[in-house]
Design brief:
This protein is 26% helix and 28% strand. The chain has 101 residues and is of the alpha+beta class. It has a 4-stranded antiparallel sheet with strand order 1-2-4-3.
Amino acid sequence: MPELWEMTKLIRSKNAGPFELTFDIMFKDNDGFRKAKKSGFCSPDKIARKYGVPPDSVKVFFLENISTIKVSIPRRVPSGDARDTDIYGGQFHSPLVRMRI
């Protein structure tokens, strides 16, 4: 079973406003995209467990025409809050990188 990073050309996270994070998972090709989608690695339940958020707050979008999966989750603390560890949201993607597909 490959890890996600092996099938993608880009995995990134960023703010989607001060209260949400979005993850862009861009695959090298459509075959890898389809395999990953079929595996269910990014189901709302799996993402929710990985990030400690409620499953019903996870939004997953499959963009087949560009072989990309977008995921949005709520931030645990707002961007810029004194407890925030990454004001731009650029480091939150790391738990996804080693996921098995």
